[in-house]
Amino acid sequence: MPSRRRTLLKVIILGDSGVGKTSLMNQYVNKKFSNQYKATIGADFLTKEVEFEDRLFTLQIWDTAGQERFQSLGVAFYRGADCCVLVYDVNVQKSFDNLNNWREEFLIQASPSDPENFPFIVLGNKVDVDGGNSRVVSEKKARAWCASKGDIPYFETSAKEGINVEEAFQVIAKNALKNGEEEEIYLPDTIDVGSTSQQRASGCDC
Hints:
It holds the Pfam family Ras. The chain has 206 residues and is an alpha/beta fold. Helices cover 32% and strands 24% of the residues.
């Protein structure tokens, strides 16, 4: 079997605690949803392989804690990101108001080479709650904010119902690919299970 080129793309998900960052990631990668809320401690990541034009890409999706006490961990996790996903809860005004803070924080911590054109994507999550009757942030308002920040792509999602999750992550992957510096990894027929391979597989350079 010939070796295949694989490119690693790093995606960071940011937003207030409780907006559904972990649920969105789990719905996309594992097609699962849990009603049990458990705050992320520090950061965690999942990987998913996607294929574009007969090429294999590994999305490394980092889910970071929304609590302020963990924000000091940001630098290590943000660095090297190819795309940043900003998530808010359409039923919580404060989570929308804080999008700008998360965006600015990311640009400061990650220091991308071209901050003006770095790919962000905004997800307005939990559109399923109460049949949409309890939402306080309109789609029009969210799209206006995205337009003011350089036409950031916007999706309204439900991690619980799986609404627009797959579609949003397809755009996330494509935008990360456009931005990402390709790191080509050749997959041999046999895999060396030595320490070097294990470090590479962990995706962590810390």
